[in-house]
Amino acid sequence: MKQERFKLRLKLWIDADGENAFGPGSAALLKGVEETGSLAGAARALGMSYRAAWGRVRKIEARLGEAVLRKRGGNKAGYELTARGHAMLVAYEALFEEMDTLAQARFQELFASPESAGRVRDE
């Protein structure tokens, strides 16, 4: 029987007043809007309904206390991120990348060899 290798998977949520304000799903939705210029397109790419996507946006905005999306002006219909929405997405992605890099390095220290798997050293 082949031995399964360990892999660390990290999830990161930001809470506001004890409630989830922003996490991987929120980041994916805003990233999708940024890439497609459309909430419907972002929702479709994530396999969620347009209504569910709007619900998620409303929840993010309620917890942050400001808008993360706005209607695009001019000839192009659709949505774009507000300055706050863009800043939140960029900061979340940077924080996740930094935390993941640190966690993966520590994971390798602790689980790289069969002798160390599952054993945490006292430090």
UniProtKB/TrEMBL annotation:
HTH lysR-type domain boundaries: 31-85
Single annotated GO MF: DNA-binding transcription factor activity
SUPFAM superfamilies: Winged helix' DNA-binding domain
One Pfam match: HTH_1
Domain of life: Bacteria
Protein name per its UniProtKB record: Molybdenum-binding protein, HTH domain
